[in-house]
Design goal:
Length: 300
């Protein structure tokens, strides 16, 4: 039972709602425009969850073997760090998840495009492989980009732009650049979750030579950066609502309230340990925003 609990912990369930927020937004917009396929939706969600779990396991492995996860960390104890899962077991789990991701990616692309749209399918297969590599290379290897202050950029691109625009294209086979606004909203909020994590771990990351934007900014400026990420994200999705003249989007104000409470708490936080509960708060608030946003499109 302890082994099962260790694997559940390694999957980091609290990160999963955030990971599918972009897919929900892209699906909601596609539905409102007459494009929707339940099989594509189910496979998109399954693929996204699989990629997130792969990223979590790889992150546990990468930080574990590098010694970044140690007694100096403030956050929850990780699987390798605790010794409940061995490096070999984690490597095998990562390999299994890579295979699962590939199967899901190919299934999703075939369901969305069929056998006739070969070039489009090839592009999306390449994007799927790139997503798998990015999930692993965040902390694994000597060139891990998470150790070179590039995590924020990658999270913004993959959780925001690729997730929302890619999902929309799977349904419609079209590109709408106006959707960069809600896509950027999800990307910025997802980056905010990562920034909170890095703000919590500024001191321990410095000891482990892990470079993050929060580490470069320092505690005070990383708070300002965080405020920008959340506030600007709300402005962007509000602007999108104005441009699309969707009257039901006023309900987004309900989804904005948790963000305002969150920002107030972060502004008054002094102890880095107190950032940890807000990771879940911001992730679930982003998920709520995605749900409300999509419902507003569906009921129009």
């Amino acid at each position: 039972m302890k082994q099962v609990n260790a694997w559940i912990s390694a999957c980091r369930l609290r990160t999963l709602p955030l990971s599918i927020s972009g897919a929900i937004v892209g699906s909601g917009i596609a539905y409102s425009r007459g494009f929707f396929d339940s099989s594509v939706f189910a496979l998109t969600i399954a693929t996204t969850l699989s990629l997130q779990i792969l990223s979590n396991l790889a992150n546990d492995y990468g930080d574990g073997i590098k010694g970044t996860d140690n007694e100096n960390r403030i956050g929850p104890e990780r699987a390798l760090q605790s010794g409940k899962i061995s490096p070999k077991q984690m490597r095998n789990a990562i390999i299994f998840n890579v295979i699962s991701c590939l199967i899901l990616v190919i299934s999703l692309i075939y369901t969305a495009f069929g056998a006739k749209q070969f070039l489009t399918s090839l592009v999306f297969i390449c994007l799927g492989i790139l997503a798998i590599v990015a999930a692993i290379k965040y902390t694994v290897g000597a060139s891990a980009y998470g150790y070179k202050a590039l995590g924020d950029v990658m999270v913004f691109l993959f959780f925001g732009w690729l997730s929302v625009l890619g999902t929309y294209f799977l349904y419609t086979k079209q590109i709408d650049f106006l959707m960069l606004l809600p896509a950027s909203t999800i990307g910025l909020l997802s980056t905010g979750v990562l920034n909170l994590n890095n703000m919590r771990d500024i001191e321990s990351d410095k000891l482990s030579n892990k470079q993050t934007l929060a580490g470069y900014f320092g505690s005070k400026r990383s708070k300002i950066y965080h405020q920008f990420l959340v506030v600007f994200s709300m402005l962007l999705i509000g602007f999108y609502s104005f441009l699309t003249a969707n009257s039901t989007m006023y309900f987004l104000i309900i989804a904005f309230l948790p963000f305002l409470v969150h920002l107030n708490i972060i502004r008054n936080t002094i102890n880095p340990k107190d950032y940890d509960p807000q990771l879940k708060v911001l992730a679930l608030s982003t998920f709520l925003l995605a749900i409300v946003f999509s419902i507003c499109h569906i009921v129009v």
